[in-house]
Amino acid sequence: MTRAIALALACATLFATTTDVEAKRLRRPQASDTTRVAIPDPVIAPDLPRALAVLDSARAAAAADRHKDAIRLYRRAIAFYPPLADDIGVELGNQYTWSDQPDSAMIWYRSHLEHHPEDLDSKIGIARLTSWRDDLDQAERLYDEVIVADSARTDARLGKAQVVNWSGRHRKAASLYSGILADEPDEMEARAGLMQAVRWMGLADSAVAMADSTPAPPLDAIKTEILHERAPGVSYTYEQNKDSDDIRRRYHTFRGGFSPDLMTRASGIYGHARFEQPARPEVSRDWLGAVLERRFSATWAASATAGYQWNSYDRAALGPESFWLDEFNLFTFDAYATLTPRDWTRIDVGVSRGSIDNPDAIFRGIWRNELSAGLDRRLRSNLLWVSGFEAAWYSDDNSSLGFATRIAWEPLWRLPIDLSHKFTSSTGFGYYGYKRTTDGGYYDPRQYLSFHEELAIAMTFSPRVRGRLAGRLSLDKENGDDWFWTGRFEASATWAIYRGLGLSAGYTNANSRLDSRPGYEIDGFYITLDYLFW
């Protein structure tokens, strides 16, 4: 599947920094509240002196970051003197927050606001918890309310900058953090936030320079992550699929890469594949490739791949037809540029040349040149609009045109389960068609329309293990035929096994032509093992 249509039809990650941003703001789900205590002793009348003594111990535990102990002591103080709850709710909310019990924290913050409507600490606590629930737009509004009431509240300014950064508006976040540092040059949280914003803009060299100029544990931790991502690495991928034409494809891909500097990545690729189809000789393919990726600025980056492939098969088994070739070898390339002119906007433009993974097309020596473009525009922090376009020209004088657009929405609703997860709903339309509809040995050239709805859930089982399930239902039309239903299911998972060693795997089953470009009704899986020398 080519790049532009894949972006619009396969629910791919479209902002390069999105995955990093989400990874940094993952929170554990509501933990069990194990701090509830009964009234310690039968009390005939409120015991304020004893309550105040316990309250002092609670505050000492809170200052020492012993949050669960502090919660237990705060609640014991309230048990001795219940009216205290009206005045210390915000303190108890803070302890629940930092002990990863956000639902309980929210109850106490809101209870405190009922008695103290102008309390800014409670409002900041609610804004923080709202951001952890991924309602970033609402969290930003709540922080703004606090800043309007008191523009000197650094914690509110930091909270807003963090929410803006998490939402993908890294340029604006950098400006907010810089404003805080202009007023408070020693504010380390702002300096770390600015470094993270610069990193997520793609400017790894500038981010590392910040850590080098101001050594500090928070900055050094981010620098370590950046250097880890750019460590030399190798990977191996095995992929297999089969379509309704009984074509079975097996791929082995080896890749190794290194970063000569923080803004550049160079890689080498070797691949081997086999294509099998009844009544056809088996095709064996080998290819070599070189990849150069370069980030030039926060505004644009580019990638270029050049390679050569050898396709070998038993020509004698094909018969006397004149269009069968004795051999088919091809120089391939793939180059594209990514533009991010402003926050929440991305433009991709690419050009490529390659063969087709169908035996008959290989026997005929058919290859294609392609021009593609994509536009991604985030409308809100959880609403993304994506469009893709491609035009391709085939060596047998055919050509094709494709277009797709979709809206991806991440609802804030979550299942009541003890597992960090997120839903995505994707609704879209796609068209793909050929100038000539004669069979050239590739992808049954016709005209296709498709309307689809896809639902996906991404799950984080632990910091090392993640998974994703997605299902799509499409209403398709071929040429002038009747509309018909198609579907797609996919599952994938990643596992950070140990230090630089990682494993990822996925499975796909689909009977949509637009989803399965090589052939109709495709079923396949892949598994990748990668290692960073860190």
Would you write up a description of this structure?
The structure is a single chain. The protein is α+β, with helices and mostly antiparallel strands and 534 residues long. It has helices at residues 3-9, 18-24, 48-63, 67-80, 85-98, 102-115, 120-132, 136-149, 154-166, 170-183, 188-200, 204-213, 217-229, 359-363; strands at 233-242, 248-261, 264-276, 283-295, 300-312, 328-339, 345-355, 367-380, 383-394, 399-409, 420-434, 447-462, 465-478, 484-498, 501-510, 522-532. A 16-stranded antiparallel barrel has the order 1-2-3-4-5-6-7-8-9-10-11-12-13-14-15-16. A hairpin with a 2-residue loop joins strand 14 (484-498) and strand 15. Helix 9 runs parallel beside helix 11 (188-200). The protein is elongated, with a radius of gyration of 28 Å. The two termini are 33 Å apart.
Low-pLDDT parts are: 1-44
Decide which structural class fits the backbone: alpha+beta
Strand content: 35-45%
The helix/strand order is HHHHHHHHHHHHHEEEEEEEHEEEEEEEEE
Mean model confidence by pLDDT: 89
Specify the biggest β-sheet: 16 strands, antiparallel, barrel
DSSP helical segment count? 14
Rg to the nearest angstrom?
28 Å
Percent helix, as a range, is 25-40%
Regarding quaternary structure, what we see is single chain
Terminal residue distance: 33 Å
Query: How many beta-strand runs?
Result: 16
Q: Strand arrangement, largest sheet?
A: 1-2-3-4-5-6-7-8-9-10-11-12-13-14-15-16
What's the overall geometry? Answer: elongated
